[in-house]
Amino acid sequence: MDDFLAARLQMAFSLGFHIVFACIGMVMPFFMSVAHFYWIKTGKPVYRDLTKAWSRGVAIFFATGAVSGTVLSFELGLLWPGFMEHAGPIFGMPFSLEGTAFFIEAIALGFYLYGWDKLRPWFHWGTGVVVGISGLLSGILVVAANSWMNSPSGFDFVDGKYLNIDPIAAMFNPAWFSQALHMCLAAFVSTGFAVAGVHALMILRGSHIAFHSKAFRIAAIFAAVAACLQPISGDISAKDVAKRQPAKLAAMEAHFHTQKRAPLIIGGIPDTAARKVNYAIELPGMLSFLASGDMDAEVKGLDQIPRSEHPPVTVTHFAFQIMVGLGTLMILIAVLYFLVLWKKKQWLDRRWMLWIFVYATPLGFIALEAGWTVTEVGRQPWILYGIMRTADAVTPMPGIAYSFYLFTAVYISLSLIVTWLLYRQIKHLKLSS
Description:
This protein is mainly α. The protein has one domain. It has helices at residues 3-42, 45-79, 81-114, 121-150, 167-171, 176-204, 209-244, 246-252, 286-292, 313-343, 351-359, 363-377, 390-393, 400-427; strands spanning 156-158, 161-163, 259-260, 264-271, 276-283, 298-299, 382-384, 388-389. Strands 1-2 form a two-stranded antiparallel sheet. Helix 2 packs parallel to helix 7, helix 4 (121-150) packs across helix 6 (176-204) and helix 7 crosses helix 10. The protein is globular and about 65 Å long. The chain starts with a helix and ends in a 6-residue tail after the last helix.
């Protein structure tokens, strides 16, 4: 393994683990706050128990998210000094603001965890809401920094120099809104389905049914609403990518040839040598419609992009198909859930309904990882799109492969510890009701 590949793999593994911890840490405080709201309004002990149980989960993921996020910050300097030398002064603002949001989140979480029976009920609830809002802002700010890599702005690039730097324009670059919206909804979908699935399994096992039923209902509604909204953000993102990163869109769809009334490809195996897709289902004109709103519009293919600037087509295409396929499946589950809520409430406790959510537990996070793969791999060979290649930013320091092995072991260990802590929390659940 050469150092360039090791550096890319280390960053990929670090981001892959951190994104799960971060998304759960962003979303769980909202679940916790909803349960707390019901506790204040109804006085039912089951909601107090649920709030306290979820607050312990929030604390666990806050800690792991902080650790994994700090490691990522160091890795940017360790692995990509060529990038940070120029990019740091330009996109440092969202990172500094993210640090501020993180400290607010930490202070609010401290008030929340130690405020039981000490703070006024609504003030105590408010600190939990602040935990959720500040965590969500942290995620948005980090995504703003990543979107800048996909849509560089806020500076002039003249003769290899970065001039007239405007950090505000860099932070609010053309891609930040579409990426932030898509990422936030994905966090709610993935976390919502995972939490609902866990509680559905506990209901099926006959464990504290009243407690887990309340938890399941809150998580399932969040997941279902976010899943139904996700196609809107997906459409916004697709049109944005088509405009700014035609090579990424072409790789996502394995669209080798520029053409009008371009078909949307479902499935298939790309053959990059023959420049075609085998075994695919084609929907005529739909790619043109998704990219521009016009079924007869021309969509740029990989044939108009230099081969040296082609993203890895096979990986990007498969990741995109996984993301869209699982996203569609979760939308169908969400629609079914809302139909049951509307017409057949007695079906909510049916075993088949609960098993659907149990089997859907990992789907959101698989789709999340696939979507992140599309974002990062689809940008290659650029670390800063159209300006700096990834190969030019990597550290010259030798022995990165050993760093990759070490960090991978650390993240796997961290994941095992978190899984054990959560299992312990669920197994030794203590209820007052």
